[in-house]
Structures are given as structure tokens and as C-alpha cells.
Amino acid sequence: CSQCGKTFRNCGGLRFHQRTHSMGGLGC
Prior knowledge:
This is Zinc finger 287-like protein. The chain is an all-alpha fold. The protein has one helix at 14-22. It has one domain (1-28). 7% of the residues are buried.
């Protein structure tokens, strides 16, 4: 997931998507 706008499915799952945001913008 390289962009915030991508759905959690494209980020490997909802848990991974939330993790990228909580880790300080890994996917943002």
C-alpha cells in the first residue's frame, strides 16, 4: 500500500492498513 487512498484489500488487509497509519505514515 503506497497511498492512503487505496483500499485495505490492496494493502494486504484491514489490520495492515491500520498499522501503516499508526506507524506514522508508512503507507501515507
